[in-house]
Amino acid sequence: MSRLLSAFSGSGLMARVLRSASWLMVGYGGSQALRLAANLIMTRLLFPEAFGIMTLVTVVIVGLSLFSDVGVGPAIAQNPRGDDPDFLNTAWTIQVFRGCMLFAVACLLTIPVARFYHEPDLVKYLPVGALALLVSGFFPTRIETAHRHLLVGRLTVLDLASQVIGIGFMVIYAELTQSVMALALGGVVTAVAKLILTHFLLPGPVNRFRWERAAADDLIHFGKWIFLSTALTFVISQGDRAILGRYLSIDMLGIYNIGYFLGSFPMMAGLSMIGRIMIPVYRDKPPAENATNRRHLSRLRAGMSLSIGLALLLMAAIGPQLVGLLYDERYQLAGPMVTLIALSFYPRLVILTYDNVALAMGDSRSYFIVMMVRAVLQILWILLGLAYFGLVGGIVSMALATIASYPAVVWLARKYGAWDVRHDIVAVLTGVLATGLILWMHWADIALLAGY
């Protein structure tokens, strides 16, 4: 116990990594627990079509956010001037302008998106949901500074408090109105609460409008490839729902979104931690520098893969039973979806953290190349899977796309001495055996979904 406590104490890199990882897992776990509780309440107050409509709203909002991301967060994390007030205020000014532009674009896209998905109600709900983009543009850069220095304890508490406020409002509004508007406003109230709490309770200087040419040049130079890369991140993270919005009925899309939430939970929890931790780790301990760094990074990756992999396989194994326990009969097809989605995320364990090394080294161009390969393969495989094998094929295709992108990821990892072939082989062999067993266990449920 004393050795464990000593590992978490002090100001060294690994101590800060362990503390930050713990806080991030607490934050993400708590956030998803709150989200699950809200989801269970809202499925009883509303109807499957409501979640389908909000899935489309989310696709558009996340898409706009990712298609316009200029990499302010990663830039602050890796830039030597990441603590300079002029640099931070310039970054904040860019962020505010981006938030205003996103809201305006969302309003302009409302009617075309409603027509594309044949869903007229989007005209009401999309502009309201997009208010969260406007509000988030004013988030203080103290949030990114806390992540830069792996000091995220207070930030985690404030994030959870914001979510509690947003969920509380959403549940009360839904109880009073039984309207989809509760879901649309919930995200906006959460964003407003986070803005207020971080502004008053997060330590650090208050942001001011500032435009320093040198800082802007650094941000734009680094961010130009991030801008393109995050557009591709939208394809990877939201492309399935963007395509399925045209393929499925609106109620079935809502059921799929519930299945996706449960099935992807372990991987999303891992990514929320890895994305914030690994850039500082790779920045301070480059794997190409010496064998000690590579050994420490290998252990860190192994621990992450083991925890995330076991959680994914557990979720896949209990998916149908979990949905049967938590939801009523209207949502039961989400059960086999949970199994297939969790298994489809498992191959991502093999490539986990490799993309972060490029960002840590300031090589956003190589990061973009890998993201482009992954995005193109994912869209291609999803379309082929849907065309030949229906919804089941569309879900499974996400795993096949990840496998097909492995050579590009290895190219990036080898460039900076980060490729860990032993880790990858163990992850693949474990995944093949576990996937076969879980598919055998739930074959009848999957066959029922395939017949939809």
From TrEMBL:
It is found in: Cell membrane. The keyword Transmembrane helix applies. The chain crosses the membrane at residues 50-76, 96-116, 122-139, 151-174, 180-202, 258-279, 300-327, 333-354, 366-389, 395-413, 425-443. It is a multi-pass membrane protein. InterPro entries: Poly_Biosynth_Transport. Pfam families: Polysacc_synt_3 (PF13440). The keyword Repeat does not apply. Keywords: Cell membrane, Membrane, Transmembrane, Transmembrane helix. Belongs to the polysaccharide synthase family. PANTHER family: LIPOPOLYSACCHARIDE BIOSYNTHESIS PROTEIN WZXC, PST FAMILY PREDICTED COLANIC ACID TRANSPORTER. This is Oligosaccharide flippase family protein. It comes from Ruegeria aquimaris.
